[in-house]
Amino acid sequence: MEYIQEFLESIWQGMRRAPKPKRGQDIRLRLELSLEEAYLGTEKLIEYERWIDCPQCGAKGYVGDLVKEPCPACEGTGRRVSGIFSFPRPCSVCKGRGYIVKNPCPVCAGRGRVAKHSTVKVNIPPGIDEGEVLKVIGMGHQGEKGGEPGDLYLRVSLKPHSIFKKVGKDLHTEKLISFPLAVLGGTTKIKTLKGEELEIFVQPGTECGSTKTIPGMGFSPEGNLVITFRIEVPKNPSGKLKKLLTELAKELKEEGVEKPPTLLDNLKKLLS
Ligand SMILES: [Zn+2]
Ligand SMILES: [Zn+2]
User: Fold this and answer.
1) What's the 135 CA to ligand 2 centre distance in angstroms?
2) Distance, CA 64 to ligand 1 centroid (Å)?
3) Domain presence at residue 122
4) Are 193 and 181 in contact (CB under 8 A)?
5) How far is the C-alpha of 33 from the C-alpha of 155, rounded, in Å?
6) Domain CATH for 126
7) Which tens digit of pLDDT belongs to each residue from 62-111?
8) Which ligand is closest to the CA of 79, given by its number?
9) Is residue 11 over pLDDT 80?
10) Is the residue at 42 inside a domain?
């Protein structure tokens, strides 16, 4: 028992005497990208805070000469017996130093470190996907006591898009087509994620909700573009269009066009 205690004390003394350089911690941030930015690649300016040595006190934690007084919690020994093992452990009040600083640096409040607003320009490669992580070497928190800095990790998060939905490597989109185009077939245009117009063929007899798959036009070259057709219903048809639609209804033997429900129908509905 005594031997272990001595051993621990010797380690502790060693730690107190020579503060070792400590590598700065890594910083992990979420990087929000639009679908276009991720697809085409871009350059992003990242703004964040990182801990650096306090420029006011040079990481000492005090300005000028150190004014200190023995720590009342550990009586200046820097360690206290606590916990179930009854071994001396670093004093939490003075952080094992054994003294309290009476003239802490006003800029860093004695911590020796300050948060610095930092910016870094990051190149986003085209085709980057949700959850991928970009590493910026040396842009994490600054190291302590001359230690090397940590790294900055940026985890990609894709923002929802107004037209396209990314499903794995595929892109899904909806296209409104007119009733005549759905029936007779033909061509229509859609916008791609690149912003280009793409002419597509609509099969005669295209049903509302049916899909068309264009290989290689997805979020990546391995992905597909999946177009779901919806049939457009004119909300305020002009007089001419109304006439044509009435003609069409006659042709299709649609007898209920524009007729209100009869009294008998309503009664039936009420009783059922
Ligand atoms: Zn103490
Ligand atoms: Zn300071």
Assistant:
1) 30
2) 23
3) yes
4) no
5) 10
6) 2.60.260.20
7) 989 999 999 998 888 888 876 666 778 888 888 888 999 999 999 999 99
8) 1
9) no
10) yes
Q: For 102, what's the count of Cα atoms within 13 Å in the CB-facing half-sphere? A: 7
Regarding whether 232 and 191 lie in a shared domain, the answer is yes
Q: What is the whole-number distance in angstroms between the Cα of residue 25 and the centre of ligand 2?
A: 19
One domain, residues 131 and 211: no
pLDDT digits (tens, 9 = 90+) for 138-162: 999 999 988 999 999 999 999 999 9
Beta-bridge mates of residue 154: 29, 134
Q: pLDDT tens, 201-220?
A: 999 999 999 999 999 999 99
**Is 92 domain-assigned?**
no
Domain that holds residue 239: 165-255
CA distance 146 to 58: 11
Domain co-membership, 155 together with 169:
no
Residue 49 has pLDDT above 90, yes or no: yes
Residue 231 to residue 113: CA distance in whole angstroms: 63
Q: Which amino acid would we find at residue 208? A: C
Ligand lying closest to the C-alpha of residue 101: 1
**Cα-flanking dihedrals φ and ψ of residue 58, to 5°?**
65, 35
The CA distance from 250 to 257, in Å, is: 9
Ligand 2: centre distance to CA 46 (Å): 26
Report yes or no on 89 lying in a domain.
Answer: no
Number of domains forming the structure of the chain: 2
8 falls in which pLDDT band (50, 70, 90)? low
